[in-house]
Amino acid sequence: MRVFVTGGTGLIGSAVVRELLENGHDVVGLARSEGSVAALREAGAEAVRGGLAQLDVLRAAAESADGVIHLAFSNDFSSPEALAAGVAEEAAALGVLGETLVGSGRPLVTVSGTPWVPGRASTEADPLPLDGPVGGRGRSVMAALGLAERGVRSAAVRMPRTVHNQGDGGFAGLLTQIARQSGVSGYPGDGTQRWPAVHALDAAALFRLVLENAPAGTAWHAVADEGDAVRDIAAVIGRRLDLPVKPVPEETYGPLGPIFATDQPSSSAYTRETLGWEPRHPSLLEDLENIQP
Hints:
Layout: E1 2-6, H1 11-22, E2 26-31, H2 34-43, E3 46-49, H3 55-63, E4 67-70, H4 80-101, E5 107-113, H5 135-146, E6 153-159, E7 162-164, H6 170-182, E8 185-187, E9 194-199, H7 200-213, E10 218-221, E11 225-229, H8 230-241, E12 245-247, H9 257-260, H10 269-275, H11 284-287
Parallel strand pairs: 1-2, 1-4, 2-3, 4-5, 5-6, 6-10, 7-9, 8-12
Antiparallel strand pairs: 9-11
Helix pairs in contact: 1-7, 3-4, 4-5, 6-8
Protein name: Nucleoside-diphosphate-sugar epimerase
Pfam families: Epimerase
InterPro entries: Epimerase_deHydtase, NAD(P)-bd_dom_sf, NAD(P)-dependent_oxidoreduct
């Protein structure tokens, strides 16, 4: 299958590109810079220059592909306005990708976060939040899944709060970054709130399985660790960086503060049973031991 991938040089995307190539697919990656072009070519993929805002580039690449995996996002969480701009850019891009595939029966695999449900681990059957800081992403994903009724084999892989590799990535990576800057390995609230996690290489395997096999209009959970307490995550970070570990104000984390403070464990039991996906790489707490002082 010839697969067009957006975000193919990021932490998750580079693992997805590798997984696809190793399993016999051809990959064309969207590249915003010459550095991204070089990285894709070095991996064995083709590259097309452009970003999410260049809708004509997205349309042409999707038209010539047998399937699309969308992973790109601005990842600018510096302010509510920056986050909203990134959500809007993604919505327009995903809309074009989906419309291009209408009536073709080709797969469109997109990405979201796992939902959170008070008092229990969320499952694949739970709806995404459509309000709040990232509600716009949920609405875009639901629109993409709705294209199942228009001849697109659309599916969503829901990612946990931390997708990690070699001790970096996701919410835990942000905690590490802030700890280095502030001199404190902090966490919001009492730290008992739980975050799910997955190794990037395990997530990549699920993206491939969904691309190849998932029915139209379905959602899947890339969750390996159902929920690690945030203070346990902060404790490993503090030990690795030789920094004190203590609670800090929710506002420390900007527009992500309310999400950081939420208990949000998640299950992937249905995904594992249905698609035969089984995580094989280190857990989050094990992988954080790779953080360099």
